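Here is this case:
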Amino acid sequence: MHPALNLDLPELEWVALLRAEQAKGKSIAQIARECGMKRPSVSMILAGTYPAQSLDLVTRKHGTRIVQLYRDATLCPHLHRAIPADECRAHAAAPMSTSSPDKLRQWRACRRCPLNPLKPEGQQ
């Protein structure tokens, strides 16, 4: 077993949401059912003992669902943070900007994003 790294990294937003749900009195099993995760995984994430080197894979697989479920928001892969659903829709519907490099990057990211709310169902 590898010793845990003691890095003072900011907590991931979706992990903080899981902790908040637990603080509200929900059991780990209930949180796991709501999120579609396995109970031992939720337990290890909350205890800080998850065996993976990083939570990147878990974030990609479950982070978006957790943020949507508990915050009614979207975990934007481009901005690397949760944004309200209406802000996501506004980014996706915005016209292409040629005057701002940041807006152009956001526009391109939205076109490729699997979470784009304006894409027809089943289209990638």
Remarks:
- The chain has two domains: 12-71, 74-119.
- The longest strand covers residues 73-76.
